């Protein structure tokens, strides 16, 4: 039934039989029942108001567990994840980055010590990116910088240049202080806990979860056509 016809029917009902089928809390004339979702709810006619805007769907949640110097991780982030993020509206895709991967941690005299798959430089890169996220806070601010680092010649030596291009408002000194202090260690320990809590446990990197789940099929789809996968899942 067309909205105009429906409004006419509702108005007729209101005139012929006042109070018939009208919710007790509805103090609005019939011609306004479908004018907003709040009024339709108060008058209990939501199911009859086809013209009401529907709430936006929840964004697809993607989490990337990676290592800063892992070639396959860098390729996925730079060539698949970042372009997809640029192409899609912000409400469609929510990304979480967890730089840790196959690293290992151990408690040495009360302090966490980390060993990374690609050596100490990777541990530094992981911590730099974790500190960047911590200091910049806003995803749209730090993700282009991480893209710049991961797609460039050096993850650990280009921070200043990448910040100048993509996020000049972020203080590199605060990131350096984070890396050299207790905050960086705490952030890496947190990433270790997130990675170790994966179910099923991660077997390789990059390790991708979609809406909190990981399957071989989802991983393959994300690596083959991430844009297509997100568009398919976003309802």
Automatic annotation (TrEMBL):
Lysosomal thiol reductase that can reduce protein disulfide bonds. May facilitate the complete unfolding of proteins destined for lysosomal degradation. Plays an important role in antigen processing. Facilitates the generation of MHC class II-restricted epitodes from disulfide bond-containing antigen by the endocytic reduction of disulfide bonds. Also facilitates MHC class I-restricted recognition of exogenous antigens containing disulfide bonds by CD8+ T-cells or crosspresentation. Lysosomal thiol reductase that can reduce protein disulfide bonds. Facilitates the complete unfolding of proteins destined for lysosomal degradation. Plays an important role in antigen processing. Keywords: Disulfide bond, Glycoprotein, Immunity, Lysosome, Oxidoreductase, Redox-active center, Secreted, Signal. This is Gamma-interferon-inducible lysosomal thiol reductase. GO terms for cellular component: extracellular region; lysosome. Its EC number is 1.8.-.-. The keyword Secreted applies. Its main location: secreted. Belongs to the GILT family. GO terms for molecular function: oxidoreductase activity, acting on a sulfur group of donors, disulfide as acceptor. InterPro entries: Interferon-induced_GILT. One of its GO terms (biological process) is immune system process. It is found in: Secreted; Lysosome. Residues 1-21 form the signal peptide. It comes from the Eukaryota. The keyword Oxidoreductase applies. Dimer; disulfide-linked.
